[in-house]
Input
Amino acid sequence: MYWTGGERGNVTSTTATSPAAREFEQRTDPFRRELLAHCYRMLGSVHDAEDLVQDTMVRAWRAFDRYDEERASLRTWLYRIATNACLTALQSRQRRPLPSGLGAPYDDTGAPLVRGLDIPWLQPFPDVVSMADPRDPATVVTQRGTLRLAFVAAMQLLSARQRAVLILRDVLDWSAAEVADVLDTTPVAVNSLLQRARARMDDVRAQEDEIDAPAEMACRVLVEQYVRAFEGADIDALTQLLTDDVVMEMPPILNWFRGRSDYGKFIARSYSMRGFDWRMIPVSANGQPACAAYTRATDGMYRLHTLQVFTVTPAGITRNTVFQDEAVFAIFALPPTLADE
Output
């Protein structure tokens, strides 16, 4: 299950009850949520981000007696450690894509489904981890759109240092001098990295600008209409809620589709394979509306099938990223079955 703040091992081991350890835990705990979001943006994996936050706290504990608050705030110091831990980790990790980032859409919705089991796919991020308090910096950056799947997926196309610079400068509003200090480089080099990173992210930023906070409330109503249409097996009603260029992708399946017509055809195929009796329960991921989809089995129980994360604008649903992965289900603590109503 994802880290919630209370399900971690003590980084201080056998000395966890010492006054220094208690001071360390008390002072660093408020930053764990935002550090987890930071590491997730860098790595694209909730599991890897959890590991890196834990590694950050271990490193910070070991150096805590040398921390000088006159040189940097505790928050800045922890971000320095976390960022460098992520950069080290990325030296041995592949980027985490979505299917749409690997090639052209499939033009045959009836083609055999191809599983990319050797690919480290981008994972969704549960909002419950970062949305506890509107004053929480992790909540603020979520509302800016920097945890959205499209943003994190685009980040995967950047080099590790470009990712770090973009996050520290544009998400956390650090100065070029502060970022240069973290990365052991110059402000000129930081600005150069930032310019290249922004250029690659321009398309994603334009898409995110279409989604503002007031419109997003109405968008959730649209998703509720989608759920009713899906549970009612009403493909005509469902496809009317989509934009013309809607994308459906289904990691770890390599097949992905673009356009309202192909989307509807694939939904019809899903009904033919899994039946027409489905239930969907609302969740939230990456600051976006999402649903866990359950299909009815022969024993009468509804069994967990997918987690679906929607990208929605006032014009309609523009993307449905459908995850069929036990690791993702565990991250969201989704029940494996629902009882027959």
Notes: Confidence is low (pLDDT under 50) at residues 1-9. The chain is about 45% helix and 15% strand.
